[in-house]
């Protein structure tokens, strides 16, 4: 394939990700977003950018040291060229964030929430801050002057520092003051108003009192971002326990090379030059910010607001709903044996699945519980149920992935806890992260082996299940259960090439099967038959998959993709991707579910999966995709996809240059997440309401018309009898 063709219909993954993060930032200017939620979006944008520099920029930085330059297979750019483009785009994003942050802080001030600069404090507030500094901050500070006896210190990744230039007699020196993590970031000022100051601003303001034996000639708040892309693919010592190896590697992360420096508001040129030299950074790696350099404090700030103020500046409260079909006292095991169950987070609770595990832990019929774990919350009832099961004599096997980035330490602790309870813990596979979300419960019922399988798109994280949109299927289907049993057997013997009937498992058969399904739609289109591919993903980067989707589009296949983040395939490129549509939704919840659909109507093949269409997922991770067989479940998922495609409030469409644009609203406003919240609330009371309250049908592949009933007159025509199927699914 000619390089020209490569560039025509593809874009660089890093620049695509930056455009996605810009969409996150832009939520902070939307009129329908409450003032404090806007500040949270700025915080999320900031933490996203931090991780991007740690991982993606860090990885590219490492590539620049390779003897032979590697080129991006979508644009032909070298690592150095990609870094230059990233730094240029990031500089523009910093300026955009500064403007938005200024507007949002002004809006919050109008609501009585005031982030005060030190220069804005009145006499009374300044006196309070001075006393607070003297009593609580200064005693725990550890300032340092760099000299022959005190070399330049190690600056920890994303730590906050006050950097100063000092005049000592006739000599200029450099000083550094770490802002202690033991001190809260937010100091609230006394009074009825919600006024606060950030600790790092106080430390910088009073730097001359800290270095009281010399003159402070320049000062600034700075933060360093380091490469955090550590290689954990192999053991340093074959005889070493992998858990202990991971503990050692985590200590190394904080000492990797700097890739970025940020300073707050302004910095003296001499101070900037000194830090750049010591850290080995170029000018383009240094960024000015008028927003705080680290913004995780925002989420804790909410707890400090007066209760009467909260409703006017935050989203209307929403709690995941208990499904109406979940009857108190009814056995989840019995229900799953009768019919498939689909849970849709965060609109519905994780409770049914947790209840299933709790039952299984105590049920004498249950022989074993096997589960893969990638990320968990700090507190996890799931762990309690697994421990109980092991203590009750069940065989409990946990595949615990210790390499889940930034959750390594948490997973190590959970692994140790499970081992203490008698669970068998497997630390993933040597060369592949286990990213799948599968749970298998095996029981002996009337001398017959029966299996209950849960397959999800998201982690068993009880906290993020309230924030991320995910799907979780629970089924007693024999073929899926048999495949799940084979999957866990293969994981226990490190066999990545197992044979499966229903499940798609990466890196074994998943990619081959997906490409074949896409090619099947292409062949249908060439024969003049209706053909379509509809997928929901977080990211699309895999070159082979991109090319197959392009080939399908050129053959006339209608390709509709709902992609939250990176999309390296450019839609609407004349002669290549004319039939590709890319939609992205950024809203109150983080879109996280993955769904693959091939074909139309009754013949549609549908899968839910843990895998994005990324090379790392398809080739270098263990992932699972599960077919949706139950017509009611399939109808419900398709309804969700259609609702997302019809969104004209939070959704954006991507153009042929990779730019996101708002949809033209020529009718009723449709916010898919708001609508799904409403449906979840109504469905918790009346099982019929999910179908009866359907949103307007989007432009989606034609499907057979459903029979109309008074309750389902607004239901999208997905499959014949959809309304009746949904009523069966949600009956009490």
Please give the share of residues in helix: 25-40%
The overall number of domains is 3
The strand count comes to 27
| Beta content | 15-25%
Low-pLDDT runs of 5+ residues are: 234-240, 688-732
Q: Do you know the CATH architecture of the largest domain? A: 2-Layer Sandwich
Overall mean confidence score, pLDDT: 89
Name of the CATH class of the largest domain: Alpha Beta
Overall geometry: globular
**Main beta-sheet strand count, sense and barrel state:** 10 strands, mixed
Overview of this protein structure:
The chain is built from 23 helices and 27 strands. The protein has 732 residues and is of the alpha/beta class. The strands form four sheets. Strands 14, 18, 19, 20, 21, 23, 24, 25, 26 and 27 form a ten-stranded mixed sheet that branches. Strands 10, 11, 12, 13, 15, 16, 17 and 22 form an eight-stranded mixed sheet that branches. Helix 20 packs antiparallel against helix 21. It is globular and about 85 Å long.
